[in-house]
Amino acid sequence: MPVAGADVMLVGFFSDEEKDFAALMDAAALRLTARGARVVGRIVQRRGVSDGGARKMALPYSSRTLLSSGKVREVAESCERADADLVVFVASLTERQQHVLTGMLGRPVMGLSDVPADRAGTALGGDPHRAGSGSMRQTAGKY
Q: Residues of the chain with pLDDT > 90: what percent?
């Protein structure tokens, strides 16, 4: 599904060791808006932050969804409220994860790495050897 013109729910999954997750979410939102998408919401799942989450760090996360069942419900509800057309995960997803999450969320799901590059073939429209180069336009949306 093309992202241009789509209302996108952005989802991030980060361990407690990733202290700069907000900047990663910002960069992902900029990449999407540079492609003509409108980010209508952001949801983050951090693993290992709370006492309960820290105890669960040794357990495998859901290989089917990448998220906890409660977080999947939160994403689904947020998508409904925001009338999102598409869900984009900051992390790469397997085909199986995309298929399962698409069914659970009722809309297409993709990883940020699956978002097509611009016509020049670069991720952000500038020098392909410098991440983040090039101009970006920011569209209004809920963050």
A: 54
- For the chain, the average pLDDT equals 77
Residue with tokens 């998508």: 79
Four-way CATH pick for 7-114: 3.30.70.3400, 3.40.50.11060, 3.30.230.10, 3.90.1580.10? 3.40.50.11060
C-alpha 79 chain-centroid distance:
13
The rounded distance, in Å, linking the Cα atoms of 139 and 5 is 11
Q: What whole-number distance in Å separates Cα of residue 135 and Cα of residue 129? A: 15
Query: Do 119 and 134 contact (CB within 8 A), yes or no?
Result: no
- Can you tell me the mean pLDDT for 23-51? 89
This prediction has a pTM of 0.74
